[in-house]
Amino acid sequence: MDHYQVLGLRKSASKEEIKQAFRNLAMQFHPDKHSQSSQHSRDSATFKFKQISEAYETLIDDRKRADYNISRSAYGAAQNKRYDYAYDRGAARNSYGNAYGYSGSASRGAGDFTFAKFEMGLRYLTTRSFLLNATFAGILLSGMYIVDTGGETLWKMHNPGKSFEEAMESVKKAKTVEDDTY
Questions:
Q1: Under a CB-based contact definition with an 8 Å cutoff, are residues 80 and 104 in contact?
Q2: Residues paired with residue 93 on neighbouring β-strands, in sequence order
């Protein structure tokens, strides 16, 4: 469902235009206005009113509208690519010569789709939950590094002149000597 088409708007519509279109259509398709109509008319008006309400809720909120526009462009690019493939394979053509009424270049659609995926990934990487998880992981890793280097430093302070590896080799030798004596 295209929210812009439901409200009869273009993609660059302002919030004021969205509100005005919603008010007009809500008054026209409100279920209470069709309470005396036939069952089919009531159901149809109720369905249309729900579509109008959903479109309004999405387009009036800036964040929801941006997400919708991104997903819409990604979906549209994928659809164009699929229909261009059908066109290239000699699918049924309409009177304009386009397969199923779609036109456009598959490479153009693929580029738009790639950009939309990149933008969605960037949006995910900048969400609060991702940043908190990345910060927590960074703190854990840096803590592990500090403990590891601190252990080596302590060893060097208490055992000057010997490396940890040399000490472990002498422990292994002592263990093999003990095992041989028993």
A1: yes
A2: 99
* Alpha helices, DSSP H, located in 89-127: 106-125
Under 8 Å between Cβ of 81 and 89: no
Which residue is associated with the tokens 């690519």? 81
The one-letter amino acid code at 34 reads: H
Quote the tokens at residue 35.
């309470």
Look up residue 182 and give its two tokens: 């028993």
- Token pair for residue 151? 């252990």
pTM value > 0.90? no
Q: What is the Cα–Cα distance from 87 to 36, expressed in whole angstroms?
A: 48
Q: For residue 148, how far is the Cα from the chain centroid?
A: 38
- Is the backbone of residue 125 left (phi > 0), alpha (psi -120 to 50) or beta? alpha
pLDDT tens digit sequence for 125-177: 888 888 899 999 999 999 999 988 888 788 788 888 777 788 888 888 888 87
